[in-house]
């Protein structure tokens, strides 16, 4: 590994009421990720899921210039061979597997792994100055963090092929046009808009929001009949939680508790 790279950058979990913000903090390098930051993303996701006070998670990049420029290419020198790469810490599954709704607040560059982080989230709030790219093909390989899976589902086969086979950069307007992002905002407003959206979601029952996320995710993987059955089971669990809360409230009132 290049000298000193393992000591650069960090990933932190900031708590703001019911919203947890996972911040990619290496602005001097456009928040490009080091292997140590991979570990920190995994740890931050685990901490956010374990914190009962956090209902929604936001991913954002530190500084003014970028969301995340992907993995630091210099860091790849640290992998001895293909086997070391195969067994690396993969930071995308922990993001995708968050039980809680996840929002990406994107500005500036979102290249490679940065694009894949945004795609692994549930909703993307993107500044008009954002620029995306999946440049791996120009380096001689394909991305391994889900860009092909997510872009194909979000934008369709042809658009995914175009973006991944060329490695071309594309702007936020293009990303919005092809269905990759949900909210397009003015530069500098992405964090505020993401927090406002997160606050609205966090105002709902955490059981309900997690059930909705599980139901929507299942729609991409299950046949319709199985998905409908899964939705019914999720709703039953939500009803069970409502009934339990009602019973607890009535017991407390009977006992003269607040």
Which band does the percent of strand residues land in?
15-25%
**How far is the first residue's CA from the last residue's CA?**
58 Å
Uncertain regions: pLDDT < 50 for 5+ in a row? 1-6
| Helical content band | 40-55%
| Rg measurement, Å | 20 Å
Can you summarize the main beta sheet?
Answer: 6 strands, mixed
Structural class: alpha/beta
Oligomer: single chain
Largest sheet, spatial ordering of strands: 1-2-3-5-7-10
Could you explain how this protein is built, in words?
- It is a single chain.
- The chain is of the alpha/beta class.
- The chain is 47% helix and 17% strand.
- The protein has 11 helices and 10 strands.
- The protein has helices spanning 35-50, 82-86, 92-96, 113-120, 136-139, 147-155, 157-166, 172-177, 190-202, 206-219, 224-254; strands at 10-16, 19-25, 56-61, 66-68, 102-106, 109-111, 123-127, 131-133, 170-171, 183-185.
- The strands form 2 sheets. The chain has a 6-stranded mixed sheet with strand order 1-2-3-5-7-10, sandwiched between helices. Strands 4-6-8-9 form a 4-stranded mixed sheet.
- Strand 1 (10-16) and strand 2 form a beta hairpin.
- Helix 6 packs across helix 7 and helix 10 (206-219) packs antiparallel against helix 11.
- The N and C termini lie far apart (58 Å).
- Mean pLDDT is 91; it is low at 1-6.
Provide tags for this entry.
disordered N terminus; 4-stranded mixed beta sheet; 6-stranded mixed beta sheet; globular; 258 residues; alpha/beta
């Amino acid at each position: 590994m290049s000298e000193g790279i393992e000591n650069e950058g960090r990933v932190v979990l900031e708590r703001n009421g019911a919203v947890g913000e996972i911040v990619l903090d290496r602005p001097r390098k456009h928040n490009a990720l080091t292997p140590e930051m991979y570990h920190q993303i995994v740890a931050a996701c685990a901490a956010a899921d374990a914190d009962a006070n956090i209902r929604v998670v936001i991913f954002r990049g530190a500084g003014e210039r970028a969301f995340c420029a992907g993995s630091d290419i210099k860091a790849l020198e640290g992998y001895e061979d293909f086997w070391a790469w195969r067994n690396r810490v993969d930071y995308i599954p922990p993001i995708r597997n968050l039980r809680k709704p996840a929002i990406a607040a994107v500005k500036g560059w979102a290249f490679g792994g940065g694009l894949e982080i945004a795609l692994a989230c549930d909703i993307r709030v993107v500044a008009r100055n954002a620029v995306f790219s999946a440049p791996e093909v120009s380096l001689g390989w394909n991305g391994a963090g889900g860009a092909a899976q997510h872009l194909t589902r979000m934008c369709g086969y042809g658009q995914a092929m175009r973006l991944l086979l060329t490695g071309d950069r594309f702007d936020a307007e293009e990303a919005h046009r092809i269905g990759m992002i949900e909210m397009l905002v003015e530069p500098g407003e992405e964090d505020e808009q993401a927090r406002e959206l997160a606050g609205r979601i966090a105002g709902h029952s955490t059981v309900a929001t997690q059930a909705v996320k599980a139901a929507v995710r299942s729609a991409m993987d299950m046949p319709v009949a199985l998905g409908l059955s899964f939705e019914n089971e999720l709703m039953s669990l939500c009803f069970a939680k409502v009934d339990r809360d009602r019973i607890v409230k009535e017991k407390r009132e009977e006992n003269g508790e607040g």
